[in-house]
Amino acid sequence: MPRTSMRSPRRIDFDHPALSDTPLNDQAPPPDDSISWKLWLASHDVAHKALSSDYIQGVKKGTLAPTTYGRYSIQDAVYCYHAQADYQALESRATADGDLSLAAFAKARYDGYVQYTAETFEDWHIADAKAISPGSAARTYIELEHHIASQWSPIYGVIAMIPCEQLWAWLGSSLKSHATPGNLYSSWITENDDWSGGYRLDNFVDDWLAEHPEAYDWESALFVFQSCMTCEANFFRSACGQEVLPMPTKKNP
C-alpha cells in the first residue's frame, strides 16, 4: 500500500516492541535547565534557518512544487537506507556495553528505516538504492551518523536522534495556523505538530545522563546535537537549491 502519511518517517515509533521495557511514559516538556532542553535552546538559531528555508516556506504557503517534495522524499529514503547499517552497529555496540535501553532505541530506529525505505522504494518503483546518488546534504548527514554510530559512545547515537524529533515537531507547531483546507501540505503540518515523542526522548536522555554523568561531556553532546540539527536544516535548504549552512567544528569523541 502506498505511503500516505506526511509525518517524518525518521521520527521514532515509540510503540515499537523493542521499547516496551524502556521507561518512556513521561510526555511532559523537559525542565528548562535539563540537558536536552539546553541543547535545543543552544541550537534554536539553526531551527529558525530551517523554518525560513524555501522548502518549509513552500509547505507553509502550499506553494512547494510536488516535484521538489518528491525529490526530497527520495533523498530522505536513500539517506535512511544508508543509515540502516549504522543503527545495526549502534545496537550491537550498546548491547555489548550491557545497555539494553540504548540498544532498544537503535533497534526501533533501524526497523523504522527499513520499513520506510521499503515503502518508498515500492511507491517510486526503485529497484536498487545504489542507482540513486545522494546529494551533498544527504551525503554529509550519512557520513556524520556513520561516524557517530561507529566511533562515539552509544549515548551520543541516541542524542543524535533528538534534533529530528524536536525540529519536525517545532516546524509543525510553528506552521499550524497555515494548515488550511486549501493548503496541499496541510497534513504535513498537522501530522508533524506533535511534541509527545520528542518530550519522551528528551526525558529519557536526561534521566540516562543523570544516572551516568561520567559517560558524556557537554561539548561533545552539543557538537552532535548541533551537527545533526544543521544537517536537518541543510536537507531542507538543498532541496530548493539554497546554499547550505556551515557544519559545526569537528570534534573527536
CATH architecture: Up-down Bundle
**End-to-end span in angstroms?**
42 Å
Structural class: mainly alpha
Low-pLDDT stretches are: none
Helix content: 55-70%
Q: Which homologous superfamily in CATH is the superfamily? A: Heme oxygenase-like
- Radius of gyration over alpha carbons? 17 Å
Helix/strand order, N-terminal first = HHHHHHHHHHH
List the total number of helices: 11
The main sheet comes to:
none
Strand content is under 5%
The total tally of domains equals 1
- Nearest-integer average pLDDT: 89
Number of strands: 0
Reading off the top of the CATH hierarchy, the class is best stated as Mainly Alpha
Task: Report on the architecture of this protein.
With 253 residues, the protein is mainly α. It is built from eleven helices and no strands. The protein has a single domain (29-239), classed as Heme Oxygenase, Chain A (Up-down Bundle), CATH 1.20.910. The termini are far apart. It has helices at residues 35-42, 44-51, 54-61, 66-96, 100-123, 136-151, 154-159, 162-175, 186-192, 196-211, 218-239. The model has no long low-confidence stretch (mean pLDDT 89). Helix 2 (44-51) runs parallel beside helix 11 (218-239), helix 4 (66-96) packs parallel to helix 6 and helix 8 (162-175) crosses helix 11. The radius of gyration is 17 Å and the shape is globular.
